[in-house]
Specification:
Layout: H1 11-29, H2 35-38, H3 49-69, H4 80-89, H5 99-119, E1 125-127, E2 140-142, H6 143-169, H7 173-181
Antiparallel strand pairs: 1-2
Helix pairs in contact: 1-3, 1-5, 1-6, 3-5, 3-6
């Protein structure tokens, strides 16, 4: 549940707990949306909740593949245009996308990331991918750094998704979590239910 990560026993357990917390935030923020609503971009941003779930899927797959390939780099033989087109598809809610299919892909990517966090030595050197935003004077990060970065990136985009979701129907994270998990209604928290 994304409300709070549970107590942790060690570093690896902490990485997994906070990664699970951020992964669950995506399941909560898309909870109850129709396929059409998941593609809405009601704010000034062109992003939708569905597109952000797709982006979080792609981000987890990319970083997990990078760690699993370490200490070597990930080799993608596809032309640059094809790689860019895939990146754009994973940032866009396309005609024919469904909440069910996007969540299934997300869950597969999330499970692979959690498995890698549980099994890969945290000291594994992971080559720094060439990109203008990455430092030129660092050749490798540790797997630990990658997992912390992944948690940070998921958290950042989960916040974007929260704002977009609230713009769609007014739902906020705790209401969505409560509705998804069947929490009882209290004087200060009403679980989300679709308005009649």
């Amino acid at each position: 549940m994304p409300a709070q990560a549970p107590p942790v026993t060690d570093e690896r357990d902490g990485l997994r707990a906070y990664l699970i917390q951020q992964q669950d935030a995506y399941r909560a923020v898309i909870h109850g949306l129709t396929d059409e609503e998941a593609g809405l971009a009601p704010s000034r941003s062109t992003l939708s909740v569905g597109a952000l779930v797709k982006h979080a899927t792609h981000t987890q797959l990319t970083w997990t593949a990078t760690v699993l390939a370490a200490p070597g780099p990930v080799v993608d033989e596809r032309p640059q245009e094809e790689q860019y087109a895939e990146h754009e598809r994973m940032l866009t809610w396309l005609e024919g996308d469904t909440v069910e299919a996007v969540l299934a892909g997300f869950d597969e990517a999330a499970a692979a990331a959690l498995d890698a966090v549980a099994t890969i030595d945290l000291e594994t050197p992971v080559p720094v991918p060439p990109a203008p935003w990455n430092p030129a004077d660092v050749t490798a990060w540790s797997a630990r750094w990658v997992w912390l970065h992944l948690i940070e990136e998921l958290a950042r985009h989960a916040g974007h998704a929260d704002i977009i979701r609230e713009s769609i129907d007014g739902a906020t994270m705790f209401e969505l979590v409560a509705g998804r998990e069947g929490w009882p209604e209290t004087p200060w928290l009403k679980p989300w239910r679709r308005a009649e």
